[in-house]
What we know:
CATH architecture: 3-Layer(aba) Sandwich
CATH superfamily: Gcn5-related N-acetyltransferase (GNAT)
Protein name: Acetyltransferase, GNAT family
Number of helices: 4
InterPro entries: Acyl_CoA_acyltransferase, Bact_Acetyltransf, GNAT_dom
CATH topology: Aminopeptidase
GO molecular function: acyltransferase activity, transferring groups other than amino-acyl groups
Largest sheet: 7 strands, mixed
Radius of gyration: 14 Å
Strand content: 25-35%
Number of strands: 7
CATH class: Alpha Beta
Number of domains: 1
Structural class: alpha+beta
Keywords: Acyltransferase, Transferase
Domain N-acetyltransferase: 1-153
Helix content: 25-40%
Distance between the termini: 27 Å
Amino acid sequence: MHYRLAQPDDAQAMSNVFTRLEAVGKRRLPSTIAYARETYIDHFANISCWVAEEDAKLVGLQVLKRAWPGNPYDIEPGIGVIGTHIDPDFGRRGIGRGLFAHTLHAAQAAGLAEIEARITEDNAEGLGYYEAIGFRTYDVIEGRVRKKFPVSP
């Protein structure tokens, strides 16, 4: 597995991953190329967006943002916000752990105190993944489980 920072020309491949997740009921947000570019590659609050490739095919990504005033996640400004997306055919292979190793370094370099993930209650794989890498549940609101991870310098 090869990990690298996302580039503008990754938007199509990201959209493909989102579309595959949507097809198996694991994504509810938009899956367009424009959405991938605006939300995961070029977003003003991005700290990092790492991608995982196998045989030059993008099979996963993880974005880390610094929450901003009025963010749609209802997360306190300054806290890290994470999102992880793995192609359904490549799940349970350690890709998420590999991505998080890079994301955690980015969080430390950015001086974040903690990172928050919001996962839908029916996403057992996502809940298990975040729990396995050290995130802990602190709240459940409107069908979303809120988990936090303390970032150590």
